[in-house]
Amino acid sequence: MDLPGSIHNIVVVFLGSVLIFGGLGVVLFTNPIYSAFSLGLVLVCISLFYILSNSYFIAAAQLLIYVGAINVLIIFAVMFINGSEYSNVSRLWTLGDGVTSLVCTSIFFFFFFFTNYYYPRYVMVRNSLDYKIKPDSRTGPNKLCSTNWNSFINRFLSSI
């Protein structure tokens, strides 16, 4: 999907935050039905990321296979289990939930405050197996760097 840069960034940040909170919901909800619905939300957001990266077939396959089949199967399996044992849970917040929340929150704040968010946009120019990364007009002429893919391929093949 070709969106302007600022709108694309806003959508990515929104989907990323929904993914984080949905993943926390999968782990922290004590009711398995709520956890399964949260998993469905996470899988839908992943398919929206595929749509943002112009991978429409992968997004459709993600929705049909994971959300449409596997997540619905999980929800049906959980609904066939006796639901009364989950409604009698008195502790809604356990020690594991607190530790998980603390670790995830600290990782989020670490990456939020200590990550450089400036990512210049580069244009790939193909020249046989040698790819030269040339900067966009917005990054300036002094950001030119080159990558030789032959050395990467040779190093990978020699390690096998």
Automatic annotation (TrEMBL):
<dbReference type="InterPro" id="IPR042106">
    <property type="entry name" value="Nuo/plastoQ_OxRdtase_6_NuoJ"/>
</dbReference>
<dbReference type="GO" id="GO:0048038">
    <property type="term" value="F:quinone binding"/>
</dbReference>
<keyword id="KW-0793">Thylakoid</keyword>
<keyword id="KW-1278">Translocase</keyword>
<feature type="transmembrane region" description="Helical">
    <location>
        <begin position="63"/>
        <end position="81"/>
    </location>
</feature>
<keyword id="KW-0934">Plastid</keyword>
<dbReference type="Pfam" id="PF00499">
    <property type="entry name" value="Oxidored_q3"/>
</dbReference>
<feature type="transmembrane region" description="Helical">
    <location>
        <begin position="93"/>
        <end position="119"/>
    </location>
</feature>
<keyword id="KW-0472">Membrane</keyword>
<dbReference type="GO" id="GO:0009535">
    <property type="term" value="C:chloroplast thylakoid membrane"/>
</dbReference>
<keyword id="KW-1133">Transmembrane helix</keyword>
<keyword id="KW-0874">Quinone</keyword>
<comment type="similarity">
    <text>Belongs to the complex I subunit 6 family.</text>
</comment>
<dbReference type="GO" id="GO:0008137">
    <property type="term" value="F:NADH dehydrogenase (ubiquinone) activity"/>
</dbReference>
<keyword id="KW-0150">Chloroplast</keyword>
<comment type="function">
    <text>NDH shuttles electrons from NAD(P)H:plastoquinone, via FMN and iron-sulfur (Fe-S) centers, to quinones in the photosynthetic chain and possibly in a chloroplast respiratory chain. The immediate electron acceptor for the enzyme in this species is believed to be plastoquinone. Couples the redox reaction to proton translocation, and thus conserves the redox energy in a proton gradient.</text>
</comment>
<keyword id="KW-0813">Transport</keyword>
<comment type="subunit">
    <text>NDH is composed of at least 16 different subunits, 5 of which are encoded in the nucleus.</text>
</comment>
<feature type="transmembrane region" description="Helical">
    <location>
        <begin position="7"/>
        <end position="27"/>
    </location>
</feature>
<dbReference type="InterPro" id="IPR001457">
    <property type="entry name" value="NADH_UbQ/plastoQ_OxRdtase_su6"/>
</dbReference>
<keyword id="KW-0618">Plastoquinone</keyword>
<keyword id="KW-0812">Transmembrane</keyword>
<keyword id="KW-0520">NAD</keyword>
<feature type="transmembrane region" description="Helical">
    <location>
        <begin position="33"/>
        <end position="51"/>
    </location>
</feature>
<protein>
    <recommendedName>
        <fullName>NAD(P)H-quinone oxidoreductase subunit 6, chloroplastic</fullName>
        <ecNumber>7.1.1.-</ecNumber>
    </recommendedName>
</protein>
<dbReference type="InterPro" id="IPR050290">
    <property type="entry name" value="NAD(P)H-Q_Oxidoreduct_6"/>
</dbReference>
<keyword id="KW-0521">NADP</keyword>
